[in-house]
């Protein structure tokens, strides 16, 4: 832009140039404003895109729902009608019907797809929808249509195969009739059979064996064909999960031959290992992992990898940690310690011993000071000048000013003897104060190890050191100090009688102090390596000596993984020098190691928790794929089934496979993959695209496996039912051969009622397909968004404090808040189960009622028939009912068939055509149609009967048996059960479940579940609003955070719930760019804000605070949501400044300390609820400002230097007094800001702070700053206070010039910059 402007500028006049320059500057300003607003513009564009997507989605669902898919419910009826209307029935005809029906379905679905496409295109053009969004829904449409087509083809297939099975069974039964017909033509053979029932049974068993083998063979072929078709259906409907592999046919064959037909519920065999062994070659042949680099796609996993290694290792193991990072590193520590006896000897030795001891180290300090006093005047004088200069100069420019000021000092000294005398006095005071400091540091050993002594004698020692009357003569001074020390020493108690001291072993302050001042104490060191942090902690806890300091480092486990040392260093430190080696070597090694590592040894506890303990050994791949199998099995197995069987019974019910069920399962698998990737991210890697697809493809195989087993189980049930007919067929076979007409007639009556009963049930399923579909559709009204809105209302908004009025327990409410996905999944499962029970009850009662009604009508007709037949004695043969011509040569079978037709017409109320043969006049009344009730339902189908069953030999026993069988079946109908799976729309229950659960992702910031519908390419969003972060334990100090994700500013600092890493909100949004955090308009956002305010304020908030208090074992303060902003941004805080004004603070150091304090107050006065106190201390302490509002002018006057020694004890006593004095003023926090340039004795007054109530301690924060590089006393104070839960910190080697900046940062911390 600049280059183009210059070219144009050079060719213009002066006036034009000025106009161009003005325009150019304006363009720059416009472009710059665009750049500045780019994040907001991008977010706005994203929001517009989302709104269009929602608009298109709603229209798409509306158009799709308006389509008439009821023809799917008529498929079975249409097939049966076609077959019934055709007299020719054979396998070729059945296959023709199947092909025609499939072609008809393809045409229908293609027309529907085209119709929807046209309507979507018109809507796109009308609403100016982006092409990308339009194409997205065209793709979804294609997937839905294809899935529906495949489902319909399976319905066709199953119906045709059921008809084929019945046809094959009927053909088998015909072979029995043919055998009987054959022997009936041979009188001798017939007579032989009649006399020997054993021969009849033998002949029957041989024929039955042939029939059974043929039936089973056909069933097996049908199952094989069904399994293949199901695989094609699943893989084509979910092509995005299919794996491009050369082993596909091998997997199909292996599953068909070895897996699918076996029960997955056996207790004596775990098929997971068998399936894994089939699939393992895929894991070995393809690269399963990829490194995490700084890409948008892997950014959220990079957050895990960027955590400190120690933090990653401290995380408790879950089932997803199939490779435990703790196994690859060791803990190496170097321990500095002192033996108990050595310590006792050191503190108790007297000066006569001449060996190293505490008193000898004291004498050395005094001797060094005396030598310094006796050194040459010039050198001493220069040191004194240096001390004076340091007090006068700006410490930041000391080197630059030293020469000129030193020269001025020498000249000024020569002409001003009074100044020189005052200077000498000050430096002498300083020298003895240095002795005091060194002695105090020497004696800190007693406080470090908590050695008891007489406090009064210690005070006497300090007063002796600081007594000016002994300062003139060093020898006298030393003698007095030693005498005072010896008296003090006599009060020491032996350490071995004390408890192990509580100290921070990882801080080197104590060891430095001991090395510098307690030189006579013999320290020892030891270096140790541990494989687990727990072992290290146990070692420290049980260490027999006194640990002073330990230096712990994490190192690669070189003894086991020498070849990985460089890669493990990269995982630990992320150093670029190791990155290439890591990329080239580690992934291959890691993938192989997952086959080799026996996790039973590496993670025995984790294996036990996740059900793998029964395996002698199990590798990491097996752990992962077994868990995936278990997740699928739990979804494929009906929830109400008991899975804790101790035998191999196979009573579990498997869910019917359909598109919605697969989507539900795959959404679960997606979450599983995310969790596994989070674990692998500890190593700097995640599953590659191939690795993820392997899991999805494996999941498809497992779904297919359960689906095929369900079908196979149905086939086995059919075989068992067929086998159950054996006894009936045998009795019929015997009766027909013996020509026992009475028995034959009874068996025909039984067969008629059984077939009629079965046919009506089949008719009921076909006739109610559409009604059932409508009933299911009426239930399918609630989306995930609507469900969460409902649950928010019933669980959160309608919260009741009274337990008797509660709909949900507090535990359930907490689960809804903290684990919303699982809560909703359980809730939806219960709701769908209720819907299933309701619909089953409705249609089951309808079936029973209709069955009973039709059977009662038939029974009435039978009773009418029996009114004529019961008086026949003996029974009349079938031929005798008809008028016989002299030339009639028809055999008995002919008349028996005609009698069957007549009786069926009577029983069904005239539905069958009357026989053309004339009835004997005396029997006409029996067959008068008008005397029988008409049966409205036409379900009688001769094709369902064997030819031999369409005969009545003797009407009287036939009618009597009919009556008996009807009574049996009327009773049976009262308890007839319904199978919902025989309705095509039954799978819509899974669709209801899918729609209600929706997306399973949860907000990474507040754990609120995404309430959008499930799809692979949608943006996650909480349309019902994000929940308050404090509901999930996010605290601002001791108050739950009452901000939602859509309320936070871009610059807010957020600590993520998962990684505990603090980032700006705008940076977190970039990481989770698949989430829309601000997608609501102002009205909706305000409504949700008011909802959450109501939820928190009316009782839920107090309950959550109580739960958090119990969980975290700390005081949690409840604050109303509407007051939260004021409480957070104008918190009531008491700031207590503790300033050292000892003699060493004179000069620039004091000026910087004072200005730092006042500058901090300038920041404090922005908070109208803040109060300030100032304590100034030297040998004594004084409170110059007592809990006042900031008034800089007045306060500046009160903060003045006095000079003197240094005593922390009196300063902390003043602080404690202030806390007690103002404890009833309801301060949210007490911030103590402490500064000193030196050291002092450990203050015993710290013990008082430990006695404060827990809630009060939780509100105190101590910030210590010291110029000392080894501030041992302050470190001890910080340790003590942290141990009793008063938060404390120490900055050592602190420059006073940084004081204002450091304290201002503490004070100006934005409390809406949320932290966990």
From TrEMBL:
PROSITE patterns to which the protein is assigned, alphabetical: VWFA (PS50234)
**InterPro entries tied to this protein:** VLIG_GTPase, VWF_A
**Top-rank lineage group of the source organism:** Eukaryota
Q: Where is the VWFA domain?
A: 1134-1314
Q: Name one Pfam family in it.
A: VWA_2
The protein depicted here goes by the name VWFA domain-containing protein
Source species: Paramecium primaurelia
């Amino acid at each position: 832009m600049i280059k183009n402007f210059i070219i144009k500028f050079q060719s213009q006049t002066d006036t034009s140039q000025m106009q161009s320059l003005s325009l150019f500057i304006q363009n720059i300003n416009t472009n710059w404003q665009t750049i500045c607003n780019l994040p907001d513009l991008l977010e706005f564009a994203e929001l517009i895109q989302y709104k269009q997507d929602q608009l298109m989605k709603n229209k798409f669902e509306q158009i799709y729902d308006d389509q008439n898919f009821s023809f799917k419910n008529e498929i079975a009826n249409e097939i049966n009608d076609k077959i019934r209307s055709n007299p020719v029935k054979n396998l070729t005809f059945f296959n023709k019907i199947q092909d025609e029906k499939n072609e008809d379905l393809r045409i229908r679905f293609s027309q529907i797809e085209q119709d929807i496409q046209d309507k979507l295109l018109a809507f796109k053009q009308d609403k100016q929808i982006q092409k990308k969004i339009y194409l997205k829904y065209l793709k979804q449409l294609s997937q839905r249509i294809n899935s529906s087509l495949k489902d319909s083809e399976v319905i066709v297939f199953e119906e045709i195969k059921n008809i084929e099975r019945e046809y094959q069974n009927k053909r088998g039964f015909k072979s029995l009739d043919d055998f009987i017909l054959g022997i009936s033509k041979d009188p001798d053979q017939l007579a032989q059979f009649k006399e020997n029932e054993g021969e009849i049974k033998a002949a029957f068993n041989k024929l039955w064996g042939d029939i059974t083998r043929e039936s089973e063979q056909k069933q097996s072929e049908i199952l094989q064909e069904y399994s293949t078709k199901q695989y094609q259906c699943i893989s084509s409907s979910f092509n995005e999960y299919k794996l491009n592999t050369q082993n596909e046919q091998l997997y199909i064959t292996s599953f068909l031959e070895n897996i699918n037909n076996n029960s997955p519920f056996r207790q004596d065999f775990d098929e997971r290992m068998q399936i894994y062994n089939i699939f393992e070659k895929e894991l070995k042949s393809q690269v399963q992992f990829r490194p995490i680099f700084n890409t948008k796609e892997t950014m959220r996993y990079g957050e895990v990898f960027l955590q400190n290694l120690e933090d990653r290792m401290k995380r408790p193991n879950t089932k997803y940690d199939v490779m435990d990072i703790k196994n690859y590193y060791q803990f190496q520590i170097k321990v500095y310690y002192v033996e108990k006896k050595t310590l006792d000897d050191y503190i108790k030795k007297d000066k006569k011993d001449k060996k190293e001891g505490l008193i000898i180290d004291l004498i050395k300090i005094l001797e060094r000071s005396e030598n310094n006093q006796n050194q040459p005047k010039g050198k001493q004088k220069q040191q004194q000048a240096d001390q004076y200069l340091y007090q006068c100069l700006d410490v930041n420019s000391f080197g630059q000013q030293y020469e000129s000021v030193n020269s001025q000092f020498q000249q000024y000294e020569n002409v001003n003897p009074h100044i020189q005398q005052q200077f000498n006095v000050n430096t002498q005071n300083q020298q003895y104060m240095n002795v005091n400091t060194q002695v105090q540091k020497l004696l800190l050993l007693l406080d470090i190890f908590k050695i008891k002594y007489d406090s009064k004698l210690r005070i006497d020692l300090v007063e002796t050191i600081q007594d000016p009357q002994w300062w003139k003569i060093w020898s006298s001074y030393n003698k007095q100090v030693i005498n005072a020390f010896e008296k003090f020493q006599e009060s020491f108690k032996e350490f071995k009688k004390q408890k192990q001291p509580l100290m921070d072993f990882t801080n080197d302050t104590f060891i430095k102090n001991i090395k510098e001042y307690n030189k006579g104490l013999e320290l020892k060191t030891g270096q140790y390596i541990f494989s687990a942090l727990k072992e290290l902690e146990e070692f420290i806890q049980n260490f027999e000596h006194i640990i002073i300091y330990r230096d712990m480092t994490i190192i690669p486990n070189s003894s086991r993984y020498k070849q990985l040392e460089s890669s493990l260093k990269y995982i630990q430190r992320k150093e670029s020098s190791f990155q290439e080696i890591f990329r080239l070597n580690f992934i291959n090694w890691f993938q192989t190691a997952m086959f080799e590592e026996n996790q039973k040894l590496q993670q025995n506890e984790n294996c036990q928790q996740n059900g793998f303990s029964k395996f002698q050994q199990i590798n990491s791949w097996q752990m992962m794929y077994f868990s995936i199998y278990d997740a699928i099995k739990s979804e494929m197995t009906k929830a109400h089934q008991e899975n804790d069987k101790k035998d191999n019974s196979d009573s579990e019910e498997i869910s019917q496979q359909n598109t919605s069920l697969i989507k539900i399962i795959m959404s679960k698998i997606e979450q599983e993959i995310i969790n596994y990737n989070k674990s692998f991210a500890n190593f700097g890697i995640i599953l590659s695209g191939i690795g993820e697809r392997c899991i999805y493809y494996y999941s498809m195989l497992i779904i297919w496996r359960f689906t095929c087993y369900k079908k196979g189980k149905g086939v086995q049930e059919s075989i068992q039912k067929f086998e159950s007919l054996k006894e009936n067929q045998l009795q019929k076979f015997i009766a027909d051969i013996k020509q026992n007409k009475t028995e034959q007639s009874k068996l025909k009556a039984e067969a008629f009622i059984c077939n009629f009963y079965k046919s009506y049930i089949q008719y009921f399923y076909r006739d109610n397909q559409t009604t059932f579909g409508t009933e299911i559709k009426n239930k399918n009204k609630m989306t995930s968004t609507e469900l969460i809105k409902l649950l928010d209302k019933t669980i959160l908004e309608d919260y009741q404090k009274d337990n008797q009025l509660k709909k949900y327990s507090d535990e359930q409410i907490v689960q809804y808040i903290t684990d919303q996905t699982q809560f909703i999944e359980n809730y939806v499962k219960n709701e769908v189960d209720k819907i299933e029970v309701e619909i089953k009850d409705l249609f089951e009662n309808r079936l029973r009622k209709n069955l009973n009604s039709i059977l009662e009508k038939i029974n009435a007709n039978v009773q009418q028939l029996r009114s004529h037949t019961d008086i026949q004695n003996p029974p009349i043969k079938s031929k005798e009912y008809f008028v016989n011509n002299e030339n009639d040569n028809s055999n008995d079978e002919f008349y028996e068939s005609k009698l069957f037709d007549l009786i069926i017409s009577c029983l069904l109320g005239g539905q069958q055509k009357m026989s053309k043969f004339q009835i004997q006049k005396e029997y006409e009344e029996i067959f008068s149609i008008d005397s029988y009730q008409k049966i409205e339902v036409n379900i009688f189908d001769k094709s369902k009967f064997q030819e031999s069953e369409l005969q009545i030999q003797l009407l009287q026993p036939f009618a009597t048996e009919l009556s008996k069988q009807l009574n049996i079946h009327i009773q049976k109908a009262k308890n007839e059960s319904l199978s919902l799976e025989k309705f095509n729309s039954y799978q819509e229950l899974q669709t209801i479940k899918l729609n209600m659960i929706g997306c399973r992702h949860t907000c990474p910031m507040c754990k609120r579940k995404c309430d959008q519908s499930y799809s692979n390419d949608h943006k996650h969003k909480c349309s019902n609003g994000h929940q308050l972060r404090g509901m999930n334990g996010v605290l601002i100090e001791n108050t739950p955070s009452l901000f939602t994700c859509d309320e936070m500013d871009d610059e807010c600092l957020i600590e993520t719930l998962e990684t505990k890493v603090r980032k700006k909100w705008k940076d977190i949004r970039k990481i989770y760019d698949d989430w829309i955090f601000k997608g609501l308009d102002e009205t909706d956002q305000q409504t949700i804000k008011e909802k959450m305010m109501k939820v928190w304020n009316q009782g839920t908030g107090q309950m959550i605070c109580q739960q958090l208090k119990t969980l975290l074992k700390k005081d949690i303060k409840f604050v109303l949501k509407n007051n939260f902003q004021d409480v957070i941004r104008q918190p009531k805080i008491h700031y207590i400044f503790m300033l050292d004004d000892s003699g060493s603070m004179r000069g620039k150091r004091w000026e910087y300390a004072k200005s730092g304090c006042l500058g901090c107050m300038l920041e404090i006065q922005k908070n109208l609820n803040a109060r300030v106190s100032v304590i100034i201390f030297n040998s004594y302490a004084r409170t110059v400002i007592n809990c006042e509002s900031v008034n800089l002018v007045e306060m500046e006057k009160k903060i003045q230097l006095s000079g003197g020694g240094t005593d922390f004890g009196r300063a902390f006593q003043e602080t404690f007094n202030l806390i007690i004095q103002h404890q009833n003023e309801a301060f949210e926090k007490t911030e103590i800001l402490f500064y000193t340039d030196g050291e002092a004795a450990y203050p015993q007054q710290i013990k008082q702070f430990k006695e404060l109530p827990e809630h009060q301690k939780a509100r105190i924060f101590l910030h210590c700053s010291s110029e000392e590089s080894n501030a041992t006393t302050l470190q001890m104070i910080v340790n003590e206070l942290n141990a009793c839960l008063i938060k404390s910190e120490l900055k050592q080697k602190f420059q006073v010039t940084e004081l204002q900046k450091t304290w201002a940062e503490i004070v100006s911390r934005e409390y809406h910059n949320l932290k966990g």
